Amino acid sequence: MKQFEIILLCCLMVCAVSVAFARDLLTSIIIFMSYSLIMCVIWILLQSPDLAITEAAVGAGVTSILFFVTLKKIKAIRKEDQDEQKER
User: Fold this and answer.
1) Is the pLDDT of residue 78 over 60?
2) What are phi and psi of 65, to 5 degrees?
3) DSSP-derived secondary structure letter, 62
4) I want to staple 60 with a disulfide (CB 3.0 to 4.6 A). Which of 4, 36, 70, 78 is the partner?
C-alpha cells in the first residue's frame, strides 16, 4: 500500500508541474481535473471520505465545468482551432 501512495504522490507532483508548462488552456484544465481526482484518491487513503467527496465534486466537477464554460465564452475553444491542430 505504501508503494501505491508513493506512486500517487509522484503523479500529483507531475500534474502540478505539467499544468505550469502546458501551452494549451484546454490541456491545463484536463491536467487540473486529473490532479483533483488524484487528490480525491489520496483523501480516501487517508480515511477522510468527506474531503474526498468534496474534492471530487468541487475540484474535478464544478471548477472544471466553470473553466470549460469560461473558455467557451471567451471563444478560446473553436472548431477552427481544432481543425488546425488536426492538420499539424
Assistant:
1) yes
2) -65, -40
3) I
4) 36
SS3 sequence of 18-61: HHHHCCCHHHHHHHHHHHHHHHHHHHHHCCCHHHHHHHHHHHHH
Q: Does residue 76 carry a pLDDT above 90?
A: no
Torsion, Cα 44 15 17 45, to 10 degrees, reads 10
Residue 27 and residue 54 in contact, taking contact as beta carbons nearer than 8 Å: no
What value does the mean pLDDT take over residues 65-73?
88
> Is residue 8 within a helix (H) or strand (E), and if so which, with residue range?
helix 2-21
Hey, what's the cell of 45?
Answer: 487513503
Closest C-alpha among 26, 36, 81, 29 to residue 56: 36
pLDDT over 70 percentage in the chain: 85
